[in-house]
UniProtKB/TrEMBL annotation:
Native source organism of the sequence: Paracoccus pacificus
Coiled-coil ranges from the UniProt annotation: none
Top-rank taxon, per record: Bacteria
Pfam families: Hist_deacetyl
Record keywords, A-Z: Hydrolase, Metal-binding, Zinc
DNA-binding in keyword set: no
Protein's UniProt keywords contain Zinc: yes
Cofactor (UniProt): Zn(2+)
PANTHER family recorded: HISTONE DEACETYLASE 8, HISTONE DEACETYLASE HDAC1-RELATED
Transmembrane segments: none
Name listed for the protein in its UniProt record: Histone deacetylase family protein
Domain named Histone deacetylase: residues: 28-336
UniProt similarity note: Belongs to the histone deacetylase family.
Amino acid sequence: MQVFFSEDHRLHFPQAELSGGQFVTPYERPSRVEYILRQLRERGFDQPADPGPCDMAPIRGLMDPGFLRFLETGWDEWIAAGMKGEMISATNPVRRTQMAREPRNIDGKLGYYCLAQETAITAGTWRAAQSSAASAQAAQRAVAEGAGAAFALCRPPGHHATADMFGGYCFLNNAAIVAQMFRDGGADRVAILDIDFHHGNGTQDIFYERGDVLFASIHGAPEDAFPYFLGYADETGAGAGEGANLNLPLLPGAGWDQWGSALDTAIARIRDFGPQALVVSLGVDAFKDDPISFFKLESGDFTRAGAAIARLNLPTVFCMEGGYAIEAVGINTVNVLEGFLN
Ligand code: SP5
Ligand code: ZN
């Protein structure tokens, strides 16, 4: 399986994440990928290939122009405005301010485009996010050209980012970009399977009213888990997208019995949908020792998940998402890939 990865992920490493009222070292940190790279190497995967530059055309087609402008120029505006720290949002549109419009002030803009304040933007964040999307795009091109599957070792992750908001450690929605590229390349229907512990609110939002991209997600129930405000089972899609959104929320403590049967349900729905390509939002934070999650998967369960996904027999792009039990992140991620290949 081809692997795509850019060292430019290092350009994004905020000092601070707001967690439980404290500033802590971000859970989503550069060292996560070292553990994945090491496992790939030790277990005989191809040397990761640099993806080359990010192709902005498919991203501009999918994302909000004001949001992209903010990501591109926000840091410079922030510094020019005399701000001394990292970009951490403090004021956001909420209930009854849904008519919000983009302010001129950069602090206001930051709030306008932010969906979760744990995520800071720094000088290198935009370039890192582009390099992450570039890996996803390179993996898509490899699969479109006939590779059965490819792994994009994306960092920062993507599935919480909407067309016009960042947060949840995400800036550009890599899985959504890949799905749209398959569509633009001639696939009539594309499925996205999101196995990250957290609901892929961004991906759901981007495709919610579309019938051509199925989104299926297994995640911590929104009553109990980030991103809290989306991910309920009764969110089934709208308009042309009615029926093309499948949320499978699970309660704290869910292990393979429940998670594996939710995976079977998602896979059956994907099979019924009849897609020509599959995108997997591959988070491994459903692991029992993940510090910010509450599922109980064992490392071996990730191998079983990969094997189950392989039975769909679809051209597949894996995009890395979350996973914060850092020593186990490599093992669990590569278990999914190996389970898929074997
Ligand atoms: C891609 C991804 O997995 N994003 C996850 C973002 C989660 N951000 C908020 C987490 C809040 C968890 N609070 C943890 C308290 C730990 N003691
Ligand atoms: Zn996650």
